[in-house]
Amino acid sequence: MGNILVCDDERSICELLDIALRRDGHKVETVTNGELAKRKIDSALFDVIVTDIKMPGVDGVDVLRHAHQISPDSAVILMTAVDDYEAAVQAVKAGGATDYIRKSPGLVDEVKLAIARSLTKVSLSRQNFALRRDAATRNSLDNIVGVSPALEKLKQTIRTVATTSSTILVYGESGTGKELVARAVHTCSPRAAEAFVSVNCGAFPETLLESELFGYVKGAFTGATQNRRGLFEVADQGTIFLDEISEMTMPMQVKLLRVLQERTVRPVGGTSEIPVDVRVIAATNRDLDRQVAEGTFREDLYYRLSVIPIRVPALRERREDVPLLANHFLKKYAPGAGKSIHSVAAASLEALTSYDWPGNVRQLENTIERAVALETTSELRVELPAERPKARAVAAGAETATNTAMNTTLNTTMTVAAGSVLPEGVNMENYVAQIERSLLQSALAQTHGVQVRAADVLGISYRSFRHLMKKYEL
Ligand SMILES: Nc1ncnc2c1ncn2[C@@H]1O[C@H](COP(=O)(O)OP(=O)(O)OP(=O)(O)O)[C@@H](O)[C@H]1O
Ligand SMILES: [Mg+2]
User: Where are the alpha helices (DSSP H) in 143-205?
Assistant: First the structure.
C-alpha cells in the first residue's frame, strides 16, 4: 500500500478520496491548495501525488513541476475537468505526469486504478534502483583484487558495515589499500549515490584544514572574500574520508570530536551551527594506540573514530594475492604503454611472491608499472632489490649514487667536528640544508619512495618530512 497525497481546492473531493483510499489501506494526506501541497512534498516522501489541475494560485502543473524537482521518484496523477483536459495531456506528454483522470462520477474508481498502476511502476523503479546498487556493490568490491582468506574476510566486513552509518577507522601499513577500502564501503552503502569526499589531513596546515573541513564566512580571515562551504557540507548525505588522521593537531582533534558528537559544523568566523549527515571514515598508517599513550592523540577522539576498526593486512601477510595483483597491474599498464605483454615470467612471479613489500600494494603497482615501461619482449621480467631494503645499510642499484653523496656529506660533517678549522666561506644555512636534503634523498631511496617510512627512518614526523620535501623541491 502507498503513501498518498491528495490536493484539490474542492474540500468534498479531498474528503471523498481520503475515505475511499484509506479504506483500501493507503496512508493518505489531503491539502486544499497547491502551496500546501508543495510544502508537504518538501517534508515527506509520497509514492503517489494526486492533484487537481485547476486551482487558484499554485495550480496542479506547478505542483507537478515541484514534485518532479524535489521528489522525482513520486508518481503524479492529474485530475482534470473537461475544460483543462488539454493541459493534462500536455503534462503527460512532456513526461512529467504519470497519468491523468477526467473528473466524472466514476472518479473514485478511476483514481484507485491509477494509483494501483503507479504503485506497480514505483515498486519496479525501486527494484531497478536496488539492482543498480547491487551491481555497483559488486563492481566496487571487484576493484579490491585478491583471493586470500584475509582479503575475503576484509570484503565480508565491508559488506556488513556498509549498511550502517557508523564511524570507521581503517588502519594498516602504507600502501595496503586503505583508501580503496573506504571507497568500497561508500559504494556499497545506501549513500552510494551521494558524494565521497577525500581529505588528506596531513596535507594542510592547521588553520587551513579547519576552513577546508568546516568552511568559512566572508571576512573570517584575510582573503575570505565570500562564504565558502566546508567539505563536511559538501559530503552531506554522503561519506567523508579523513586520511592520515594521526597528523591532525590537538586543537583540530577537539574540533573534530565536537562535530562527531553534535553532528553539526560551525564555519570559521560563523556564529551558527550547520547540521550535517555525514558518514566519517578515518584512516591511518600510524599506531594510534601508541600516539594515545604518548599523549599526541586524544583518547576520546580515538574511541569516537574507532567504533568500527578495520585492519587492512600488509601484502606480506597475504602472499597468495601477489600473482593476482601483479597480473592485474600488468593489464592496467601494458595497454597504456603500447605494449602487448601477455604474462609475467615465472621466475619473476616467484621473486615477487617471496619479496617482503614494505610499501605494500602501492610499491607492487609501481614496480610493475616500471617493469612494463622497460620491457621489450612479450613476457614481463621484474627486477627486485635483492633483500628487504630496511635490513640494508645502503640501498641497491640506482640509489647508490645518492647514498655515496650522503656518505660524503656525512663524512664531511665528521670532519667539521668541534674544534676543527672551518673551510673558508662556509655558510651554515646552506651547509645544513645540503645535509638535510641528502638525508631525505637517502631515506627515500632506502624506502623505495615510501614517504611515511622515510620519515620513520629519519626519526621525524610525517608532517615535518612533507614540509622538508616541499622546501627542497624533492
Ligand atoms: N587489493 C587491491 N587491489 C587492487 N589495487 C589495490 C589493492 N590494494 C591497493 N591497491 C592499489 O594500490 C594503491 C595504493 O592504495 P591506497 O591508496 O588505497 O593505499 P593506502 O593504504 O591508502 O596508502 P597510504 O597509507 O600510503 O595512504 C592504489 O593505486 C590502489 O588502487
Ligand atoms: Mg591513503
Answer: 149-162, 178-188
Q: Is ligand 1 within 6 A of the CB of residue 168?
A: no
Is the pLDDT at 403 greater than 70? The verdict is: no
Domain parsing of the chain, residue ranges:
3-126, 143-313, 317-380, 394-471
Q: Which atom of ligand 1 is nearest to the CA of 181?
A: 18
Least confident of 110-114, 154-158, 169-173, 431-435: 431-435
Q: How many residues does the chain have?
A: 474
Among 389, 246, 444, smallest CA distance to 468 is for 444
What pLDDT sits at residue 393?
37
Is the whole model's pTM more than 0.90, yes or no?
no
Q: Is the pLDDT of residue 128 over 70?
A: no
Residue type, 385: P
- What pLDDT is stored for residue 123 in this prediction? 65
Q: Is the pLDDT of residue 330 over 80?
A: yes
CATH architecture of 3-126: 3-Layer(aba) Sandwich (3.40)
Query: Looking at domain 317-380, which CATH architecture does it have?
Result: Orthogonal Bundle (1.10)
User: Which residues have a Cβ under 8 Å from the Cβ of 353 and sit 6 or more positions away?
Assistant: 319, 322, 323
Q: What is the CATH number of domain 394-471?
A: 1.10.10
- Fold that domain 143-313 belongs to in CATH: Rossmann fold (3.40.50)
Proximal ligand: closest to the CA of 198: 2
Ligand 2 center from residue 368 Cα (angstroms): 19
